[in-house]
Amino acid sequence: MEIYIVDDYQQLSMKAANFVASQVILKKNTVLGLATGSTPEGMYSRLVQMNHEGIVDFSKVITFNLDEYLGLASEHPQSYHFYMYNHFLAHINIAPQNTHILPGITGDIKKTCREYEQKIREAGGIDLQILGIGINGHIGFNEPGSFLKVQTHLMGLTKETIVANSRFFPTLADVPRQALTMGMGAILQAKRILLLANGKSKARAIQEMVNGRVTTAVPASFLQLHRNLTLVLDKEAASLLP
Length: 242
Ligand code: PGA
Description:
The chain has helices at residues 9-26, 41-52, 80-87, 109-122, 159-165, 184-188, 203-211, and strands spanning 2-6, 31-34, 62-65, 67-69, 99-100, 128-131, 153-156, 178-181, 192-197, 229-234. By secondary structure, it is of the alpha/beta class. 2-phosphoglycolic acid binds at residues 37-39, 132-134.
C-alpha cells in the first residue's frame, strides 16, 4: 500500500488527477472504475481541464461506475448518473457508449447486476478503480455487516450512510434506502486502486482500513489484501495514522 498525505483538498485533487491522467496517457483504452461523492469532485474538475488542455485524451477510455441509488431515474439531480455527467462525462471527449452506470430504475435487478458484471469482464476488467470511503468504512455501497457480496448486487443502506448522504437531499426521508453496487469482487480484481479521503470525519475509517483487522464490519479493510493500492489523503483524514 502506498500512502500520500497532502496538505489540503486542492493538493489531493491535483495528485489524484495526475494519477488518473498518467494511467490514461500510458494506456489509451484504460478501463476506469469511477466513484461519486464529494471527495472526487475536485479530481474530476482537474481532469476535465487537462482534457481541454490536450494533456489527456479519453476517446478510447471505458468507464464503469461503482453504484447507483435504486429508484432514481438518470435525470434525477441526486442520481449518480446525473452527478457523473454533470461533473465529468459530459465535459470530456469520451464516447457515450463506453460509459457504464448501473440503472436506478430496472425491472429485473438480478439480470441487471449479472449483465453489468459481464460487461466488466468483456472489457477485460478494471485497470484503475477510483474509490472514496464512507465514514463507516463502506466502499461503493458495500456496507458494514456480517458478510460482503462478491458480485454486483442490491444493498440496503445503513443508517450512517443515509444520514451522511442526506446532505444532498431536501430531507432525510428523501434519501433512497437501497442501491445497486459493484461487489467487492470486481473492486478487488481491479489492477490498480486509488482511494481518496479528506476531512476529519474520514480519519477513523482510514485508520481502521490501514491498520485494523480485515473484517466485514469495515468493508474497506479488505483493500489491505490488494497488491496495488494507493491512498491519497489530506492531513485530517490521515490524522489517526501512526
Ligand atoms: P463522499 O462519499 O466522497 O461524499 O464523502 C464517499 C463515500 O461515501 O464512499
